[in-house]
Request: fold
Amino acid sequence: MIADVLAEAGARMDRAVEAAKEDFATVRTGRANPQMFQKVLVDYYGSPTPLAQLASLNNPEARTLVINPYDKSALKAIEQAIRDMPNLGVNPTNDGTIVRVTMPELTQDRRKEYVKIVRGKGEDAKVQVRNLRRKAKDDLDALKSDVGEDELVRAEKELDTVTRTHVDQIDEALKRKEAELLEV
Reply:
């Protein structure tokens, strides 16, 4: 029973760390990266559709991204969705067959602003991991009548270790992203 609670908490924390890393990837750096466009939702025939399902994304140059839609009628909608996406700061151009996005050079102030955004996302991810820890602790406390006090204390220490490991993984990913953002 205790092992099940700890395994479930660990798996959920793993998913939270992966979600945080994906979230960090959506914040732009100095170079074009198709992952930045993961969260772009295009209004395609009345339903919000992820950009990756509507087009192929290639980056032929360091600061250029070429979006080749599978359905050419979606060009305008893709262009508008990219323009409306917050924190990208790009202006896409449409030549009738593809959408070309050229990333402007980041200023030092803009880099610092992105670092603040990434730190906020990192803190949100840590809060999520801590909430998962709290839920697992409540589940362990519910097992108090079935297992001994010593087993419960051991399980809580193990849960703390798992939580600390996941928080450290988020911190490590955050440090890498900050270094990438501040790199000129």
